[in-house]
Amino acid sequence: DAGITQSPRYKITETGRQVTLMCHQTWSHSYMFWYRQDLGHGLRLIYYSAAADITDKGEVPDGYVVSRSKTENFPLTLESATRSQTSVYFCASSDLATEQFFGPGTRLTVL
Amino acid sequence: AQKITQTQPGMFVQEKEAVTLDCTYDTSDPSYGLFWYKQPSSGEMIFLIYQGSYDQQNATEGRYSLNFQKARKSANLVISASQLGDSAMYFCAMELGGSQGNLIFGKGTKLSVKP
């Protein structure tokens, strides 16, 4: 089905472990984004990508790494997870001519 | 600095009545877009309405309208004839021209519709 999917939907990990959150879209949108949502902060941009192999930092990039080898995928990696990275993570995509379409979110808990 | 402010953490409205959710923004960029998203308790982000800074008329989408007052830098969302399904978090967001789609979000307003 067309759309934007995220996996896993829920993840529990321990401090110091590496975690990768996956995002896949079927619209061939050029732009993809990662946000985190925390109570009292709304959504904040972590990283974004304008095209394959082009990525850039957002407002809160520290502790995260992204890659985009294919247009449809935009994985987000926490290289060494910390408790402060417990959050809900949203991936979104857009062609800039329309609104951003959001994935269902991944709820990550770091113990 | 670019900023979105939503001053109402929570609001109540009676079913079938209209409600206005406030949003003010701060930018010196003349080109920008304003968005409203709805987030029900299930967690997904649902696009509601968009207003461009050069649009002459206020945007409308069904029961949603955006009261855009450029001089006041406000972009309030008006929901007419509230329904129980409108109970959700509502986020205002701004995209600056040339920002490559980066959205700046407000902290949200939780709307509760009473039967």
Describe this structure in words.
The complex is a heterodimer of chains A (111) and B (115). Chain A has 111 residues and is mainly β. Helix content of chain A is 0%, strand content 52%. In chain A, the strands form 2 sheets. In chain A, strands 2, 4, 5, 6, 9, 10 and 11 form a 7-stranded mixed sheet that branches. A 4-stranded antiparallel sheet of chain A has the order 1-3-8-7, with no helix packed on it. In chain A, a hairpin with a 6-residue loop joins strand 9 (87-94) and strand 10. The mean pLDDT of chain A is 94. With 115 residues, chain B is mainly beta. Chain B has no helices and 12 strands. In chain B, strands 2, 5, 6, 10, 11 and 12 form a 6-stranded mixed sheet that branches. A 4-stranded antiparallel sheet of chain B has the order 3-9-8-7, with no helix packed on it. The mean pLDDT of chain B is 94. Chain A binds chain B through residues 31, 33, 35, 40-45, 48, 50, 56, 58, 88, 90, 92, 94, 96, 99-102, 104-105, and chain B through 4, 35, 37, 43-45, 47, 50, 91, 93, 100-108.
Strand content range of chain A: over 45%
Specify the number of helices of chain B.
0
Work out the helix count of chain A: 0
Greatest chain-chain contact = A-B, 24 and 19 residues
Helix and strand string of chain B, N-terminal first? EEEEEEEEEEEE
Find the count of extended strands of chain B (DSSP E, 2+ residues).
12
Helical coverage of chain A, percent range: under 10%
Helix content of chain B: under 10%
Q: What Rg of chain B do the Cα atoms give?
A: 14 Å
Instruction: Pick out the low-confidence regions of chain B.
Output: none
Structural class of chain B: mainly beta
Number of strands of chain A: 11
Principal-axis shape of chain B equals globular
